[in-house]
Amino acid sequence: MDKAPEREHTWCVIPLFNEATVVGEVISALRETYPLVVAVDDGSVDGSADAARAAGAAVVCHPYNMGQGAALKTGIDYALRDPEMRQVVTFDADGQHQVSDVVEMVAAMRKEGVDVVLGSRFLSGKTKPGLLKKIILRAATAYTNLTTGVRLTDAHNGLRVLSRHACETITIEQNRMAHASEIISEIGRHNLSVREHPVHILYTDYSRAKGQPMINAVNIVIDSIFR
């Protein structure tokens, strides 16, 4: 099997907000396998856009911070302009996602013919979230399963593969963290075929220092309830 299945037909979308110290390395590593990368700079003030551009990504800039959901929508719309695009990968800028997982997820999509492949950190023992984070994510997943009718083990994982059909079908209107639940809701509403795939989320010293994982977990619950 090709080391990078569908490499010329896969666009990677990276929402980007103040990650200048790490995003260049993340994009460079990703482009070794999947060269088509668009980074959506969501109002960064630290030179993130320049770092992403220097690493070879196409860069689209929001004039101010609009939220991760808005950045994903912009990136997906950009990828849809390529008539050869078959699937989009949503990939975080902070180094938590693994390129090897993307290769396996894209291969699974093509082999099984599903519309969506979602990463799950709870299908293997590699990911080590803290106890409180695990409780919050499990609760958010239970809430999403209840309200969308789609049964998942990890409903708020940013690593996804969306087929072109899914990209053209799913509507993202929630600009901030509630977009994660909204995407699952759209999958259920449009009866898109979906499977989960075990992935390794690497909680780095950098991400822990920022406090991002816990803040995102709390925001997911709050935004989901208000949605």
Total strand segments: 7
Query: Mean pLDDT, nearest integer?
Result: 87
Provide the CATH superfamily: Spore Coat Polysaccharide Biosynthesis Protein SpsA, Chain A
Q: What are the segments in which pLDDT stays under 50 over at least 5 consecutive residues?
A: none
Strand order of the largest sheet: 3-2-1-4-6-5-7
Oligomer: single chain
Measured by DSSP, the beta-strand proportion falls in: 15-25%
- Looking at CATH, which topology would you report? Spore Coat Polysaccharide Biosynthesis Protein SpsA, Chain A
Can you tell me the number of structural domains? 1
Instruction: Give the structural class.
Output: alpha/beta
Radius of gyration: 16 Å
The main sheet comes to: 7 strands, mixed
Using the 3D structure, state the CATH architecture: Alpha-Beta Complex
CATH class: Alpha Beta
Order of helices and strands: EHEHEHEHEHEHHEHH
What is the overall shape? globular
Q: Helix share of residues? A: 40-55%
Number of helices: 9
List keywords for this structure.
227 residues, alpha/beta, Spore Coat Polysaccharide Biosynthesis Protein SpsA, Chain A, 7-stranded mixed sheet, 7 strands, 16% strand
